[in-house]
Design brief:
By secondary structure, the chain is of the alpha/beta class. The chain contains 11 helices and 8 strands.
Length: 270
C-alpha cells in the first residue's frame, strides 16, 4: 500500500472494529485512520491490543464532536471523547487526532469560535504533552450538527487560536475562492488531507463516491497541496449510500487504487 495513503474507519461505517481488522488483513490495507467510536465500543486496552496485533500503521484518530457550544453542560463529555482519542493516538503512534467544532446552538459564528476555544484548550494542552497534534476538520454546511466551520479558510483561522492543525476535507473545500492560495499560505498547518469525490446533483450528505467517480477536480486540488510542500498522508474517507450499496470489500480497494493513481499523476512516488 502506498505509504502516503490511509483508509479511514469511517469508510466502513456499519462495521465493527473486529470486522475492520479482518477486512484490512484480507485486502492488504496497512495504513488506517481509526474511529474513536469504534475503539470505545471495546475496553480501550483491548482495542489498542487488537490494533497493535494487526500490525497496522495508524495515521489519525477521528473523534467527532457531540457537544453543543452554547451548552457548557455538554462540554465535559466532549472533552472526555477527545482525551480518549488523544490517548488512542499516543498509544498507536498516530500523529494526529481529527475533531469537529461542535454544534453552535444559538451562538453566532464569533461567539461559537470563543466557545470552541474554551472547550478545546485543555484538550490541546493534553495533545501537546502527548506528542499528538489536534486537527480541526471543516464540514459540509448541511452538517451543523457537527460543526459551524464550513470552509478551509475558517478552519485555519480558528485552529490558529490554539496552534492546532487542520484536516483539509477535499469534498468540502474544492470550490472555495482562492483555495490554492489558501493551501500555499497555510500548508504547515495541514495535518491531514481527506480524499473523496462528489457527484454534482447530490442533495444529501454524506453521499460521497470513489475518487474519479464524481465531479471534483481532484488532480488540480491535490497538485496544489503537493506543490505547496505538504508531506503528510492522504486519507481516503468515502461514506454514504453509494459506498454501502457497492459493498466495502469492493469500494474501498477501488478507492485506494484510484487515490494511488491520483498521487502518481501529481508526482507523489511511494
Amino acid at each position: 500500500m502506498h505509504p502516503r495513503i490511509s483508509v479511514s474507519a469511517i469508510c466502513t461505517r456499519n462495521w465493527t472494529l473486529d470486522e475492520d481488522l479482518a477486512f484490512y488483513a484480507g485486502a492488504g490495507i496497512t495504513n488506517v485512520g481509526l474511529s474513536w467510536a469504534k475503539l470505545d465500543a471495546h475496553s480501550v486496552a483491548d482495542a489498542f491490543a487488537r490494533v497493535s496485533d494487526a500490525g497496522l500503521r495508524v495515521t489519525n484518530v477521528l473523534a467527532l464532536a457531540g457537544h453543543v457550544l452554547d451548552d457548557p453542560a455538554s462540554w465535559p463529555a466532549a472533552r472526555g471523547r477527545i482525551d480518549g482519542a488523544i490517548e488512542a493516538a499516543a498509544a498507536t503512534s498516530a500523529p494526529c487526532v481529527v475533531v469537529t467544532s461542535g454544534r453552535p446552538g444559538a451562538l453566532a459564528w464569533d461567539a461559537a469560535a470563543d466557545a470552541f476555544t474554551a472547550v478545546m484548550e485543555p484538550c490541546a494542552t493534553l495533545a501537546r504533552a502527548s506528542g499528538v497534534r489536534l486537527a480541526l476538520e471543516h464540514t459540509n454546511s448541511l452538517r451543523v450538527d457537527l460543526s459551524f466551520v464550513h470552509t478551509l479558510r475558517d478552519a485555519l483561522d480558528l485552529a490558529s487560536r490554539l496552534d492546532m492543525g487542520v484536516c483539509m476535507e477535499c469534498n468540502t473545500c474544492w470550490m472555495e475562492r482562492g483555495v490554492e492560495r489558501t493551501i500555499a499560505e497555510n500548508v504547515d498547518r495541514l495535518a491531514l488531507v481527506q480524499v473523496s469525490d462528489f457527484v454534482v446533483g447530490t442533495f444529501a450528505t454524506p453521499d460521497r463516491v470513489i475518487p474519479g467517480d464524481g465531479d471534483i477536480p481532484l488532480e488540480r486540488l491535490l497538485r496544489a497541496v503537493v506543490d505547496a510542500g505538504y508531506a503528510g498522508v492522504f486519507d481516503l474517507e468515502v461514506i454514504g449510500p453509494r459506498i454501502d450499496a457497492e459493498g466495502y470489500e469492493v469500494a474501498i480497494p477501488r478507492g485506494v487504487a484510484a487515490t494511488e493513481r491520483l498521487l502518481e499523476a501529481v508526482g507523489v512516488t511511494a
